[in-house]
Amino acid sequence: MSRILKIVILSLFITSSSMADSDGQNELSKKTNGQVKDCFEGINRAVFSFNEGLDDLLIEPIAKGYRSLPAPIRSGTSNVLTNLSSLITIPNNVLQGQVKTAGVNTGRFIINTTVGIFGLFDVAQAMGFPEYEKEDYGQTLGVWGVGSGCYLVLPVLGPSTIRDTAGSFINVMGGDPYYNVSTHGNNEFLDKSDYMLTKVLTGVDFRAKNIESFENLEKNSMDFYAAVKSLYLQDRKRKIANTKPSATIEILYEGDADWEEIETQ
Amino acid sequence: MYKKKSFFFFLLIFINSIYINNSFAIDPYSFVQETADRASEALNKRQSKEEKMEILKTIANETVDIRGIGFYSLGKHRKNMSDEKKEEYLEIFSKYFLKTFSSRLAEYTDPRIRVDSQKKLSDKYTMVSSTLLATEDKPELKIDWRVVTKDPDNPLIIDVVIEGVSLAKVQKEEFNSIIQSNDGDINVLFNNLNKFVEKE
What we know:
heterodimer; A: mainly alpha; 13 helices; 2 strands; globular; B: five-stranded antiparallel sheet
């Protein structure tokens, strides 16, 4: 029953996402000027304030504590988490048609899990493997032409869009092999709490790596909410565009005529 | 014979003028490397944060198109502004920009930037790609610089793109959000900018 409910929610998300900003026509592959609507701005700002409070009270202190751990422990933890993320990246590489990259990432995962002791050491990088780029189902939906839909701020999890939230649902619907093994694998080595622990650690690791950047951005912003939203949406756009090499700059300034109109110098 | 002599005379002047033009034009690639080195040198000095910020402000005044960034950040709202209002805005924006720019950079110690390549977007703009080299605590970062080359003798930076995120665009969306959430009243933005500049 819960599986059916998840599928219904996911379908609603994807449908509303692809229809967002349209007058009801299917806009799956139509180009927009890249603007993402903030349809729920009032609620989003309230959730953002809640997240900021939670961050001050709990997440930032934990991240600072984590930062005080010896560097080898932090880098080892980060490597294990990155290695686990390959399990989501590889199927997404395939879904985006990047078969060669999927092969490289599979090789990286096998080497790091075995020789690198469950991913503690990034042996593949030392062997000269190309730089690792994470992929997720939200990105794949974007590559397939699904519009981002409205901007969302999720409690605890932070900025997202309808499409990216739908992408996250796919992880727990069978899209993440690590989730499947730990939650439904019925084995004596892993259970649901291990999966939850890795998700919490991923959040803490990310926050710990960005303590100064966040402080700096907050201190130098007049509207922190708008600054975070812009950062998130630009970053997602770049990640989706990265499927086409060297497209970043063109994608970044797409539809922005302001550069040509301003009087400079 | 006379015709031939005149032809060579004008040809010589033409070649010379090309040589003179090129000798004064500054290559965006070298300009960015030089600017990054200047900032890095300032941040390496054993000085207080306030002293570093003052040097960074001087560098920004010489190398950044503050007027261009200011107008870009206003987006569509600048079209409804009078010339007087625009001048008033540029005065506050310049102070705001120099404060945020120097404050953001002053947090770094010993940043090392390697300029990798450049790509001409149009006659007006060139993108210069660089890498902020990794340190023990921080990973490597890709930084692209949008350089205005309308006046080739005096290139200026108009945007910095960090890992695909344009800082000018973040600022533009922040300003737009402030104006829109106050029913399009641009004076609210002016007040916020003033408050920010005066804040300790």
